[in-house]
Each structure stands twice: as structure tokens, then as C-alpha cells.
Amino acid sequence: MFNLLIPENMGGTVVLGAGVWLSGPVMLRSGVTLRLEEGCVLRATDAEKLFVPAYIGDAVKEHEVFLQAHNAEHISIVGHGVIDGDGGSQ
């Protein structure tokens, strides 16, 4: 497992190759492209208990969701990979 950390004010492209990548919450920053190559699965996991509880009606807080951007611009998620939020079926 890893945490996808994208530094502030860096910009550029983060490339994830084929395989299953487990991550806690991801904060997307301005000027960043997240490229998921063919065969890549970016999967949410709370193994390290990094997510915080979310409540309907409250403002969104950092670490409530898997992929988040706040006051950011020029962001893209590209490629033929899969984003799996690991939502359970009921």
C-alpha cells in the first residue's frame, strides 16, 4: 500500500503502471495530471485508517473522500486504467 502524495505547487504528471495500487485519500493539486496506464487499478483502502467520517449537510473535509481537489485548477485524470473506490455492495 502507498499513499499517493502530490506536492503542492509542483505540477507535472504522476504515472501509475499496470498493477493494483492501494491508497488512502488522494488530494489532487493544481497543474497535475494523473495517468493510469492500461492494466492499472487505483483502489481505495482504509487499512491505515486515514479516512475521516463524512456527514451529509456538513462541509467536505480533507480525507473524507478518495479523490479530492480543493481550490485547484488544470487537473486531469487520463489513461485506460480503473479507479476503484472500494465501495461495498449491500
Task: Tell me what you see in this structure.
By secondary structure, the protein is mainly beta. The protein has one domain. Helix content is 0%, strand content 37%. The chain has strands spanning 12-16, 19-23, 26-28, 32-36, 40-44, 67-69, 76-79, 82-84. It has a three-stranded parallel beta sheet, with no helix packed on it. It has a three-stranded parallel beta sheet with strand order 2-5-8, with no helix packed on it. It is globular and about 35 Å long.
- Mean pLDDT value: 86
Per DSSP, what share of the residues sits in E-state strands of 2 or more residues? 35-45%
Give the termini separation.
Answer: 26 Å
**Total domain units:** 1
Helix count equals 0
For the CA atoms, what is the radius of gyration?
13 Å
Please identify the structural class as seen in this structure. mainly beta
The largest beta-sheet arranges its strands as 1-4-7
The residue ranges in which pLDDT falls below 50 over 5 or more consecutive positions are: none
